Amino acid sequence: MNLLRDQRLDLQLLEEFSQKPALYAPGESHFWDDPYISQQMLEAHLNPAHDAASRKPETIDCTVKWLVDEFLATLPGRQVMDLGCGPGLYTVRLAKAGYQVSGIDLSESSIRYAQSMAKKEGLHIAYKHADYLKWRAHEQFDAVQLIYFDFGTFGPPFRRIILENIQRALKPGGLFIFDIATEQHIRNLGSGEEWHAATGGFWSPDPYLCLSRNFCYDDKQVMLSQHVVIDSSGETKVYRIWEHWFTSQSIKEELYENGFEIVWIGNDLCGNPYQTQGNGMGVIARKM
After folding, report:
1. Of 37, 54, 192, 208, which is least packed with CB atoms within 10 Å of its CB?
2. Model pTM?
3. Can you identify the CATH homologous superfamily of domain 38-182+246-287?
């Protein structure tokens, strides 16, 4: 859409963007696979100084070691799938630990990077550029992981699809390993209301104005991070990132309804025990 009408800025349309949209109102679709944005995401994944896109290397090391020692080593097989694998930060570590690893990601840039790193390290990792909502496998994996709050970025119908896909792909007794946001995590983010102008940045290589704001839907346990990006010609794109937060009881019920039972829950996937005021939850669930 364009905010310019007869060479004038349409302030009424702009004002509408400051209003709370309907729950799960769509924005730009599949923008993570946009050639430019996906490259910015890849750079964020690989930056060890922050955990904006992926967790810091020391946290990933801790997670992989703990998962291998406490859970993966107890499984009869060694087939692991990483959904939303990004540039392969977990898959490489798991492959080096002796696991037969596969990875799926929507970003072609991340998959290309992951493939190049596997080749450089002499590791056989089966990567696929695909949407894991459309992924299908049958009793092929001992464990499936979905890490860094990805599960909660989908609405209930899509979460059911994800759980159905994982349920189908896991061998009997296989594990689903994932983490999710808590209410404390969402509250820490605050309103997030800000605007900034850039001559080029995360959303575009060209000059733009970005209007950002967070909206909470408390009765549905959902937060929206909305970014309205306006270029110099008035062309406007709305990016919406939804995030559902969970309690230990709500995730237990959702998993049980879809054929999983929780075998472990904590504040992360490094083995730290569960605390109600934690910023996240790490969950290990077994296919029933």
Report:
1. 192
2. 0.94
3. Vaccinia Virus protein VP39 (3.40.50.150)
